[in-house]
Write a structure and sequence with these properties.
Elements (H helix, E strand, L loop, with lengths): L1 H19 L12 H23 L8 H28 L4 H23 L7 H23 L4 H19 L3 H8 L3 H16 L3 H11 L5 H35 L1
C-alpha cells in the first residue's frame, strides 16, 4: 500500500508540474505528427517512470540506485516532453535551447548509469564516474555553444564529437570496458553491453541532427523534432528498462 501511495503522489506531482509548466495549453491538430510524437513519448516516459518506481522496492539493494536514477531520467523526460509539446502546439516551433536543457540533465545521468551498474557487484573507482560525467557535459556544452552561436558551429560539433568519442573509449577499451570484461555476472555484462550499444548507435542521432540541422540545413526542424522524440524510446526508455531487466535477474539469482 505504501508503494501505491508513493506512486500516486509521484504521478500527481509529475502531472501537476507538466501542466503548470505552460499555462496556456493549445490543442493538437489532427495532422500534427510532430505534436503527436511529443505526446507519445511523454506518455511512454510517464508509464516507464511509474513502472520503475513501483519496481524499485523489489530489486536487490545494490540495484536500487540504478533503478531510481532510471526513473528520474524518464520522469524528467516526461515533464520536459509535455512542456515542449505545449510550446509546439502554441507556436509551431521548439527553440533548440529546450533540447539542451533536457540533455544537460538526462545525458550525464544516463552516462553515470554505467558506473552505478558496475558498482552493483564490485567496488569501482570514482574516476570512472567523473570521466563519464565530464564527457557528457563536454558534449552538451560544446553542442549548445555551437548551435546557439557562441562559437563557430563547426567547432561546437568538433567538441561534441570529442566528448562522445571520449565516452565511447571509456566504455570499450577504457577502464569501464575492462571491468565489464572481467565480470562473471552475465546479467550485468549483457546490460552493460546493450547500454553501450545504445550510447554508440542511439546517441549517434544527436551529432547527425547537428550536422543536417545546423551545419548543412539538409533536414528541417520538424523532421528533427520527430527523430529526437522517437530516439527517446531507445536512448531513455529502452536504456532504463535494460537496467531493470538486469536488476531483476540478479535479484532472482540472489534469492535462489
Amino acid at each position: 500500500m505504501n508503494k501505491v501511495k508513493i506512486i500516486v503522489i509521484a504521478l500527481a506531482t509529475l502531472i501537476g508540474l507538466s501542466s503548470s509548466a505552460h499555462a496556456e495549453v493549445a490543442l493538437l491538430q489532427s495532422d500534427d505528427f510532430v505534436g503527436f510524437t511529443f505526446w507519445l513519448v511523454s506518455m511512454a516516459c510517464l508509464a516507464t517512470t511509474a513502472f520503475l518506481f513501483l519496481e524499485h522496492g523489489s530489486v536487490a539493494p545494490g540495484w536500487k540506485a540504478s533503478i531510481a536514477v532510471a526513473g528520474i531520467v524518464t520522469g524528467i523526460a516526461f515533464i520536459h516532453s509535455m512542456y515542449m509539446r505545449n510550446i509546439w502546439a502554441a507556436t509551431g516551433d521548439i527553440p533548440i535551447i529546450y533540447r539542451y536543457i533536457d540533455w544537460l540533465i538526462t545525458m550525464p545521468l544516463l552516462a553515470i548509469q554505467f558506473y552505478l551498474v558496475l558498482s552493483t557487484v564490485r567496488k569501482v573507482s570514482s574516476t570512472i564516474f567523473w570521466k563519464l560525467l565530464i564527457g557528457t557535459l563536454v558534449i552538451v556544452f560544446g553542442g549548445y555553444a555551437g548551435e546557439a552561436g557562441y562559437i563557430l558551429p563547426f567547432l561546437g560539433f568538433v567538441i561534441w564529437m570529442g566528448g562522445w568519442i571520449y565516452i565511447l573509449y571509456e566504455l570499450f577499451p577504457g577502464e569501464a570496458g575492462k571491468l565489464v570484461l572481467r565480470s562473471t555476472n552475465r546479467a550485468l555484462v549483457t546490460a552493460f553491453e546493450t547500454m553501450r550499444m545504445i550510447v554508440t548507435i542511439g546517441w549517434a542521432i544527436y551529432p547527425l541532427g547537428y550536422v543536417f540541422g545546423t551545419l548543412t540545413g539538409g533536414v528541417d526542424f520538424n523532421t528533427l523534432n520527430i527523430i529526437y522524440n522517437l530516439a527517446d524510446f531507445v536512448n531513455k526508455i529502452a536504456f532504463s528498462l535494460v537496467i531493470w531487466v538486469a536488476a531483476t535477474a540478479n535479484t532472482g539469482a540472489s534469492r535462489r
